[in-house]
Amino acid sequence: MFIKSIDRWFCMKLEGAVAFVTGASSGIGRETALALARSGCKVAVGYNKGAAAASAVVKQCQLHAPTIKVKIDITSETSVKRALTLVRKFGAVSILINNAGILVEAPFAQQTFKQLQAQINVNLLGTMRVTHTFLTLLLVSNEAVIVNVGSVISKEPYVNLTAYCASKYGVRGFTQTLALELPSTIRVYCLNPGLTATAMTDFEGIRPSKVAEVIVRTVKETLRKTSGDDIDVPDYV
Ligand SMILES: NC(=O)c1ccc[n+]([C@@H]2O[C@H](COP(=O)([O-])OP(=O)(O)OC[C@H]3O[C@@H](n4cnc5c(N)ncnc54)[C@H](OP(=O)(O)O)[C@@H]3O)[C@@H](O)[C@H]2O)c1
Fold first, then answer.
1. What are phi and psi of 94, to 5 degrees?
2. Which residue in 26, 111, 208, 215 has its CB near the most CB atoms, within 10 A?
3. Is residue 4 part of a domain?
4. 107-116 pLDDT, tens per residue?
5. Is the CB of 73 under 6 A from ligand 1?
6. Of all atoms in ligand 1, which is nearest to the CA of residue 23?
7. In ligand 1, which atom is closest to the CA atom of 53?
8. Measured between alpha carbons, how far apart are the two ends of the chain, in Å?
9. What are 28-67's pLDDT values in tens digits?
10. Which DSSP letter does residue 206 get?
């Protein structure tokens, strides 16, 4: 029991818990889905365009635990609601990993407004949209954990990533503020990876499985953090 509230530490049991991971068709999300399945979670694998890749993830997860594939475009309220209907049939979700994200690297003036807007829409509004819709499910769980994937640049600026930075600063602010509003049965964390070897970075950085390990520790609540806190991945790998 590790997460301090007014009168107790919390600890999530993963065996049999239902987890929904967005952006689980590749990269950090894929490894997180696999790591959660290995820990005994039933996993709903969220994907948008990567249907074939998601099927492969599902196959691997199913070696360990019941798993389903869930199509979700986190920029569309209709799509998010459809995903909720599917996931609800699968089980009572108590773990939500808001991982899906996009990045465009170029000077502010050279990005189209559409590109700037898309990064905010996926990374920040998408995270809020999914959380807002899935909260009804999480609220009925005895214990629930939300992990919002931010970035080490949720805290410091980085050249040529204006909209991405703004979106990730937003994810961090959203997490901290939501934590103040949620009942103590739901804890929310901002998980900040550093450079990680995925399609987003042309495969530069640490292995995404290392980030997934920290996400699993975050979900298990063994890191002695309080709801709303940052989990800075470089501190743990
Ligand atoms: N890699 C890094 O160095 C790094 C560092 C810090 C933070 N992060 C964060 O880590 C998270 C995962 O990124 P990654 O590095 O693993 O990149 P990735 O391999 O490119 O994965 C991105 C995932 O997001 C999904 N996605 C994109 N747009 C979506 C939408 N509109 N609706 C639903 N899903 C959508 C993609 O799904 P489909 O392919 O199925 O469309 C894909 O599965 C992101 O939030 C990213 O900002 C990454």
1. -120, 0
2. 215
3. no
4. 999 999 999 9
5. yes
6. 43
7. 40
8. 22
9. 999 999 999 999 999 999 999 999 999 999 999 999 999 9
10. B
